[in-house]
Design brief:
The chain has about 375 residues and is α+β, with helices and mostly antiparallel strands. The protein folds into two domains: about 180 residues, no CATH class; about 170 residues, Hypothetical protein ph0010, domain 1 (Glycoprotein, Type 4 Pilin). It is about 50% helix and about 10% strand. The chain is built from 13 helices and six strands. It has a six-stranded antiparallel β-sheet. The longest helix is centred in the first third of the chain and has 24 residues. The chain is elongated. The relative contact order is 0.08.
Amino acid sequence: MAFEVLLGAVIASFWVGALPFGYWTARLRGVDIRTVGSGNIGATNVFRVLGAKLGLMVLLLDALKGFLPTLIALRAGADDLSAVLVGVAAILGHTFSPLVGFKGGKGIATGLGALLAAAPWTIAVAFPLWLLAFLLTRWVSLGSVLAAASVPITAYFAGASLPAVGVLTAASALVIGKHRSNLWRILHGLEPKLQLRNSRPNLEQECLRLAQQATERMVLEGARIEPDLRHLPSLLREPGSVFVALYQGEQLRGLMGSLHPQQPTRAHEIVYHATRAALLDPYHPPIDSSELPTLRYVVYLVESYEPLRSLQQVDPRCDGLLVEWRDRCSVLAPPAPNRTPEDQIHDAFRQVGAPREEHPTVYRVRLNRLG
């Protein structure tokens, strides 16, 4: 294949790979896939957020982005190196798509399509390896990394030219590098597992999942997630106040919330206050990424509140005490079944620095604890 023809094929393949089918598919459903789930525009995140049918459709479309340009190049007389270069160009377009700010997917589906056309024998090893890892762990990312690592090794032993093996090695390294955050989460026990059944989690599971995902995305990537309201219990789709607490063992590491809703729904409130509890609690240092595997999450849904007239009003099993003083940030002493109301109010006064003789405002807050 002449150099000019190869160059044109590589450029065209890059732009075919850049077509963000996952982003467009989610947009047609009113969802910005970059703000929900993992934030990735690939088929796995679409599967998690929008369901199996759309996830499989995006998988097929992303695979075609790699398959068709590579197949056309082969039909035009490309050797194995030229075909691999065309396929890798599609992977680069997918992972660094100019159409979505150079933040695309991770290249697995597009790479699969390119390999089916250019080096189908590598799939005979990579796919069973991916499937075995997924079935054993339910981690798509782990299977993808192992499959990517196997490709240049299989190509070498199958007799591919050394330049082609070199390009495949670089492409595999790129794909594995795009999974570095997944590998970090796997090592720390934070990587979500893909569930094949489309079951609706209960209220507690959804609250804790939102708090955890919001905290991890903000600490690791500095980004806020957008809850997908269509897949949440009705209580989280309605306005309401919440508090979110982060614990290490029994030690409180962050607690933020409000008596009055500040976001459109309780789901948005959980995301908002979880990120603030992790980074902006004035009484605790910000959460470091190394602490994420050790955190325990508790979400409190505010059911009612009233000014405290007597400690006899307080039930430590479900009531928190909130202190306001001199327009300073409210401090919530959360429910503590093993402590007395006197202990709760003492902790709240101590944290806010309010002397009792100045009579700060104290509220009894009835909370539904989840977690």
